Hints:
The protein has 427 residues and is an all-alpha fold. It has helices at 18-23, 27-34, 37-43, 48-61, 66-90, 94-101, 104-137, 141-160, 163-188, 192-197, 206-219, 222-232, 241-278, 288-298, 301-334, 340-347, 349-357, 361-387, 390-393, 400-426; strands spanning 3-4, 10-11.
Amino acid sequence: MSTVTGSGESVAGAEVSALTRLYRKGRVRRAAALLGPAFVAAVAYIDPGNFATNFAAGAGYGYLLVWVVVVANAMAMLVQYLSAKVGVVTGKDLPELCREHFPRPVSIGLWAQAELIAMATDLAEFVGAAVGLNLLFGVPLLPAGLITAVVAFGLLALEQRGYRRFELAIIALLAVIFLGFIYDLTLVGASVPAAVAGLIPRLDGPGSVLLAVGIIGATVMPHVVYLHSALTKRRIRPADHDERRTLLRWARIDVCIALSVAGVINLSMLLIAASLFHTAGLTDVDTIEAAHAGLAQYVGGGAALAFAVALLASGLSSSSVGTYAGQVVMQGFIRTSIPLFLRRGLTMLPALTVLALGLPTTASLVISQVVLSFGIPFALIPLLLITRRCDIMGPFANQRITTATAGLIVGMIIALNIYLLHITFAG
Length: 427
């Protein structure tokens, strides 16, 4: 048996750690076992809300908001790494640590707002998947939303039989989305000089601010800030600090690969819309249905099919991840869990209401992403406070530059939200 020193570190003994056994299995099996959590989180960064905001941004403003997509993706990489680090280092998820180290009223408040954010998340995911089913098979929107719920439960059932099955299913759906948009971008093309010029930060009126906030809200998703720490907390138990460093190195690789894939998908959406619609003067293509119809009319049925399949894959995968995150939030903050059917029924009510009343789907998606953006600080500030504390993170507490960068991200998001409120109500 291994022993433990006064500092809590294991000393080499008869037992071989899980990580050591894994390293003996070869590079391919090692990588397959250590990569995966960030790909589950990445699905939330390309949910149907991203379709709405990115296509609306590209059609309405061309390449102007390319920089927003790139900055949002860079933010996401840092945020998701910090969340993964929490799980690896402490063996607990972020909601659990908030409950343990923050006053109870604060913890309850964070839980309440997280539940509201879950409803906004479900709105995007269910509406998007329903639209995808409608475009592909002509299924009416309300029944399509119910079908989405059934499929999401099926995906979650895989997680009950082992995390790898669930991860592989999510990765497969992510690959479908990626290939669909690479195919469409290849057909449509894009102006490289205009895309490079779009990297210069600038905005053009209230409409562009709304979309910029929506893009950030759709990219830095609050619920997966909580979820990623849960995905890594007990995946492989490190025996000592050296093994924690090894796991964190793999977490960085996982995040960089997964979020790079998500970033390419998001950027492809905006570039397709900018190249196909904005340059042709079709700046009023601001719905998912119109984008699908435009692809069919100007590029061909294959492009429209790839778009619809990617949209459906996005909605199905992100809805299951959203439900998983909701359970983590409730269990962590208030030590309570409820049956998945009941939880999903409660959080999907706004989405089903939108579908049943026939409200504008894309406008509902964009507004849901703005709501998510307002929820980001309530996830990021606790993450920042936890990861900078040496009494919780030990030698893995954030360095000053990391804390400063994360603080800058939070400040930027809050400033954008305040500016959005100002231009909305002042006008």
